[in-house]
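Many introductory courses stop at the sequence. We go one step further.
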Amino acid sequence: MAGNNPTPTEYIQHHLQNLTFGYHPENGWSIAHSAQEAADMGFWALHLDTLGWSIGLGVLFLWLFRKIGKAATTGIPGVMQNFVELMVEFVDNSVKDTFHGKSKLIAPLSLTIFCWVFLMNLMDLVPVDFLPMLAQRVAAMFGADPAHVYFKVVPTTDVNATLGMALSVFALIIFYTIREKGFSGFIGELTLHPFNSTNKLVQALFVPVNFLLETVTLIAKPISLALRLFGNLYAGELIFILIAMIGLWQLPLHFTWAVFHILVITLQAFIFMMLTIVYLAMAVEKH
């Protein structure tokens, strides 16, 4: 950790720091050895642990579902085939009940979002010291100082990851709105609602008010989507870290919180998926 005998504050800060790579004014392109160095690297620094686990878990999802899909039979299905069919049917019904437009993308997108976010959230159940200490030992084998090795394993506790996913959903919202209603329809939604009048002069006065309200509503969608997921998982990870500091009672408390947290990680994946479907459904609705 941050030393042989870190203080509680150092222990928590170490666990909440990402493995950051970027351009440092003094060290050039390098991996940050402290939180201050990571901050000095600025906006364009990369969180290698977040990227690695996000991509790795995404590849795991694609490989697993593809493998099971190719091996699917019409006879008595196995446990994994049953699970995949259940997931596909669950997501498909959720999309049919909420999204009433025409798009071949929404159902696969929703399935990907739910499974991917769930897998990233699931990493929160791994004991907080296990993978970071393993990373430190591997780094020590290559001559690195273990105290300067940071390794966060839950991508959704990094606001950059959740905001990146939310901005992708936001881009789809804009795309579907313009595709279904045209650019003029998109501008009309921002300027002619919620206040409108048959009097053109009064309507002209409403335009800036409508634009301000609708723009705030539009921008709030990706921000709330990202922060809701980040906040819940960050708080859950912080509780696991605090439990790890207790010592003797760590295992029973970790197990108790993990059982409850299974509901949280599943629910947050479901909420992220459902809000994506709802926002895209709103984008294709014609008033």
